[in-house]
Amino acid sequence: MAEWIELTAADGHRLKAWRDGPAHPRMHLVVGMEIFGVNGHMRYACAQFAKAGVAVVCPALMDRVERDLDLGYGKDDLEHGFQLRARLPSGGPELDVEAARAVLDAPRVGIIGYCWGGRVAWWGATRSDRFAASVAWYGGGIAADRDETPRIPVQLHFGEVDHSISMDDVAAIRAAQPQVETFLYPGAHHGFGCEERPTFNQAAYELAQARTLAFFDRHLAG
Asked: What is the pLDDT of residues 161-219, one digit of tens each?
């Protein structure tokens, strides 16, 4: 049953999170949100995992600077999201995804993130020891952190014509992390997996989702 829950991070910060999934899931994931909050798209993404038999928790990572954030994808919303992201305290998102992982009762939990949440998922692989596998879709900012060492298996997904993440950035990530499984989607833009964006690409979304689930099945089983 999908519902809001409350989490407490290691530094005492209290935040909301969206929880979804069956009572007896095949695996467990923490979902890193975009800068727009745990909005309709993020809850929809959680529901798709729930339909696939996955239990998920999506923490409201912006609660540290603005509670109950629920933005759309217009210019003003984008600017507001960027402003909030800039105000987040260093280390806060890492603590918040670890708090989400703590409520998932499983020995092996994965983390997946979208857009800025993709960078948070990368941090879950490089700065935390709480996760067993990590996936990032069009993770903005990963190129800046590409020299950090993943402690777990990682899979990355990028659109080939992403207006926010250049192919030079993708090439730099691949050069720094040749062991990381990295996929490019021809003709796909930034946000290709978001059904609320004009850049939504059904074919790229379905392929990336299938690859994501197969990757987590390989690394979270048992």
From this structure: 999 999 999 999 999 999 999 999 999 999 999 999 999 999 999 999 999 999 999 99
Torsion (CA) 103, 106, 107, 111 in degrees, nearest 10: -70
DSSP calls for the chain: --EEEEEE-TTS-EEEEEEE--SS-SEEEEEE--TTBS-HHHHHHHHHHHHTTEEEEEE-GGGGTSTT-B--SSHHHHHHHHHHHHHSPTTHHHHHHHHHHHTS--S--EEEEETHHHHHHHHHHHS-SS-SEEEEES-TTGGGGTTSPPSS-EEEEEETT-SSS-HHHHHHHHHH-TTSEEEEETT--TTTT-TTSTT--HHHHHHHHHHHHHHHHHHH--
Dihedral, CA atoms, 4, 15, 92, 146, nearest 10 degrees?
Answer: 10
76 Cβ neighbours under 8 A, 6+ residues apart: none
Tokens 């997996």 -> residue:
193
In total, the chain counts a number of residues equal to 222
Structure tokens at 93: 């998102």
Please, are residues 111 and 101 in contact by the beta-carbon 8 Å criterion? yes
- Positions of the chain with pLDDT under 70: 222
